[in-house]
Design brief:
The chain has twelve helices and twelve strands. The protein has about 350 residues and is α/β, with parallel strands linked by helices. A six-stranded parallel sheet has the order 2-1-3-4-5-11, sandwiched between helices. The N and C termini lie far apart (about 70 Å).
Length: about 350
Amino acid sequence: MKSVAARPRIKDVAEYAGVSPKTVSNVINNFEHVSDRTREAVREAIDALGYRVNMAGRQLRQGRTGMITLAVPELDVAYFAELAKHVMTEADRRGLTVLLHQTGGSRERELAALHGFDAQFSDGIILSPLALQPRDLATRDRRLPVVLLGERPAEGSTDHVAIDNVRAAREATAHLLERGRRRIAVVGGMVRGRQGTDRLRTDGYREALRAAKVPFDSDLVVPVDAYHWRDGARAAAELVERDPHPDALLCLNDHLALGALRALHEKRVSVPKDIDVVGFDDIEASRFSVPTLTTVAPDKEEIARAAVALLVDRIDGPDDGPLVDHVVGHEVIVRESSGG
């Protein structure tokens, strides 16, 4: 038998299997009209020679890189790290590679994700924006598909995947109200300003109060500098010094809630006896805190599946189809921090 090159090629597989290179290509691409016997012979040749498909060459011939970009604010925020894992798993299932872009929540870096270095090597972008303006999306290069996660700065600008943040916050607040809590503070909330996640979750909180005929107190909506552990701890420490202090904290992510739990522990405030604490995102740490954390759990796997599927549809199909708003499910998981 004729020896083959160190890196076998299609013609080597064809010679080994006794078929034409075209037949090998048909088997690799799963084309029909190849007999089972021939298909098996080609697969045996591929295994015997250790042949690997040159994906880069195939993608370049198709005008593709086989890479997509995921741009998120901070990878050390557990929600985004967990989401990135799910996106990478889904992309790998589709034979795609993910480039990670950390924006820090700055408009400049979010614009870089749309127009900068990574975009030159990506077939499309999945972006979780914090600072983009409506005009930024209006002026983007339409040839590069984009799917937005979370809240988008302009309606009708791109495909979009998110949970119903208003409903989720309303349900979490209703849970606290059902437990008899009436002075519920929103840590990370927004009374006025941009139509972001913070504002939508605050709106849901207000809807739940209104439905329960509990007066809204703007002093109980506490903005924070960032959604980190220390910001939640700082806010909780300040809130428990008030007279009267809140009887529940609705924290708009789990990092804030876990920081709040630490501050309340240091202040000798019992959770949930004195104050209930609820978070958002259901990060893994929420299941191991003391007490365990009640939280709103978005379906992160479905967010990843939907975002990658929408992006692939745009990459493979026409770019003038109707835009898609995909609303992903969520669940309020009641744990020890609110009596679970």
